[in-house]
């Protein structure tokens, strides 16, 4: 006990003689100073408890129409953290047990009271309450950290069935908290084979640090994360698991976009050099052809000159296409409605869809979504993706789905097909110049597309399953 400050005690008893007797025992306690007040009305006692005016309360069981148990429960409902001791006239085990379950710190039989018992009760009650307050303060502090963390923080059992999660888990995975608390972390893994690794690692080393994994959201979208998890034991000896999941999906997308840009720049330097070397003699050929046209008119010569001229122009256009696919796209940004650009692009591809009898489904946000764009260039990018999708799908069985969704700061265009899909190996090379899986392709269409998308400061993500189809997700900054 604190010997410097008086201990404030409220005795709640409708019998004044009992109050005097109890208070006299307390005043005889040596080494401590007390301020003792009396209250005999239930309503007044509850107001004083709610006002947190005292360090400890002694409450008689009999208080007229209501009981001390009622006051104890009502006091706890008012967030009373100070100890409350129930006083009973006669020992009654049922009442005593109910008092302890209700939250009493202790119970005493009036007929057995003495100075020694009250001193021990007060000391124990105040010490225990101090410890409980510290525990509650720590719990509030760590609960605050738990809830306000920007990462997923979770507590689970030994089999990683979730026992508690913060709100970030709900936002990341798209499940409600109740749904998550019925799931194991293993169920959220995109690759089930990773579950056996985690189990083994936790069994052997009791922890896993900074493991990069892919998780599945409720809509089957994959998210890249860093997982740290460890096995722990609480003060009662029960085993549990705690962990943190850090979402790095946007970081991975940014790294991927940076790598793609670096590849394009490297290819651009090569192409620019080749184009320069090829265009010089090509210009000489063109000049010579023009000169021959003016001097010779024979039919045979004209025929060969036409061939030379056509192929020269073809080479020139190919060089322009190479330069366009590998260098930064020159664009003029203006405010446009995203839905209108996509609709125009779909109209441009309608003939191809008709020829292959491809079905189309679309889901566009009802409100106009504005972006800064070079509409004509963006149509080229969308068209390249749509044409690739059409060519990847079987005749009469293809389904092209285009969605436009508003996600606050970003607007997304999602182009999905049910075609042949792309292997993981080819997916990594998809936007590289000159890479193509088509027999007569040059591998410049998607390189140009990436160039245009990046010039719009947008992001592109591709998910594909062989035999099931491919999904392109293009994310634009809203205007």
Describe the fold and architecture.
- With 479 residues, the protein is of the alpha/beta class.
- The chain folds into 4 domains: 7-145, Rossmann fold (3-Layer(aba) Sandwich); 149-247, PAS domain (Beta-Lactamase, 2-Layer Sandwich), CATH 3.30.450.20; 252-326, Helix Hairpins (Orthogonal Bundle); 334-477, 2-Layer Sandwich (Heat Shock Protein 90), CATH 3.30.565.
- The protein contains 14 helices and 19 strands.
- A hairpin with a 3-residue loop joins strand 18 (459-465) and strand 19.
Features:
Rossmann fold, about 475 residues, Helix Hairpins, about 45% helix, rod-shaped, five-stranded parallel sheet, Beta-Lactamase, single chain, alpha/beta
Structural class: alpha/beta
CATH top level label of the largest domain: Alpha Beta
Shape: rod-shaped
* Helix-residue proportion: 40-55%
Q: Multimeric state of these chains? A: single chain
Second-tier CATH architecture of the largest domain = 2-Layer Sandwich
Biggest sheet strand line-up = 2-1-3-6-7
Number of helices: 14
Number of domains: 4
Please report the distance between the alpha carbons of the first and last residues: 65 Å
Sheet having the most strands: 5 strands, parallel
- Return Rg in Å: 39 Å
The CATH topology annotation of the largest domain reads as Heat Shock Protein 90
Mean pLDDT: 83
DSSP strand count = 19
CATH superfamily of the largest domain: Histidine kinase-like ATPase, C-terminal domain
| Poorly predicted tracts of residues | none
Q: Strand-residue fraction?
A: 15-25%
């Amino acid at each position: 006990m604190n010997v410097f400050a008086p201990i404030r005690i409220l005795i709640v008893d409708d019998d004044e003689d009992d109050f005097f007797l109890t208070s006299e025992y307390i005043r005889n306690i040596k080494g401590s100073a007390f301020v003792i007040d009396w209250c005999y009305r239930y309503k007044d006692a509850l107001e004083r408890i709610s006002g947190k005016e005292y360090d400890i309360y002694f409450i008689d069981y009999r208080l007229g129409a209501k009981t001390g148990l009622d006051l104890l429960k009502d006091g706890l409902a008012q967030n009373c953290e100070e100890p409350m001791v129930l006083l009973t006239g006669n020992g009654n085990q049922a009442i005593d047990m109910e008092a302890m379950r209700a939250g009493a710190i202790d119970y005493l039989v009036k007929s057995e009271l003495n100075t020694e018992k009250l001193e021990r009760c007060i000391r124990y009650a105040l010490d225990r309450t101090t410890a409980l307050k510290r525990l509650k303060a720590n719990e509030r502090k760590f609960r605050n950290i738990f809830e306000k963390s920007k990462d997923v923080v979770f507590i689970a059992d030994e089999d990683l069935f979730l026992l508690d999660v913060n709100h970030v888990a709900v936002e990341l995975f798209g499940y409600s908290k109740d749904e998550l608390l019925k799931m194991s972390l293993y169920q959220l893994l995109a690759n089930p084979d990773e579950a056996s690794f985690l189990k083994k690692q936790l069994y052997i080393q009791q922890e896993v640090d900074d493991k990069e994994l892919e998780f599945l959201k409720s809509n089957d979208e994959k998210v890249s994360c860093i997982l740290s998890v460890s096995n722990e034991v609480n003060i009662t000896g029960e085993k549990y698991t705690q962990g943190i999941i850090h979402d790095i999906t946007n970081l991975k997308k940014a790294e991927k976009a940076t790598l793609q840009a670096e590849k394009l720049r490297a290819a651009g330097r090569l192409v620019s050099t080749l184009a320069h070397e090829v265009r010089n003699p090509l210009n000489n050929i063109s000049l010579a052809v023009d000169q021959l046209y003016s001097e010779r008119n024979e039919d045979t010569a004209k025929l060969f000159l036409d061939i030379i001229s056509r192929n020269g122009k073809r080479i020139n256009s190919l060089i322009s296409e190479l330069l366009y696919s590998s260098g930064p796209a020159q664009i003029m940004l203006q405010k446009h409605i995203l839905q209108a650009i996509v609709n125009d692009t779909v109209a441009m591809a309608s003939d191809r869809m008709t020829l292959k009898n491809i079905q189309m489904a679309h889901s566009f946000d009802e409100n106009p979504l504005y972006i800064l764009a070079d509409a004509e260039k963006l149509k080229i990018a969308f068209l390249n993706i749509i044409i690739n999708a059409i060519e990847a799908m079987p005749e009469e069985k293809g389904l092209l789905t285009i969605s436009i969704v508003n996600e606050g700061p970003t607007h997304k265009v999602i182009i999905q097909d049910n075609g042949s899909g792309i292997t993981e190996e080819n997916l990594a090379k998809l936007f590289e110049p000159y890479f193509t899986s088509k027999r007569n392709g040059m591998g410049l269409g998607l390189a140009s597309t990436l160039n245009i998308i990046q010039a719009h400061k947008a992001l592109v993500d591709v998910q594909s399953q062989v035999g099931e189809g491919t999904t392109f997700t293009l994310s634009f900054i809203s205007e």
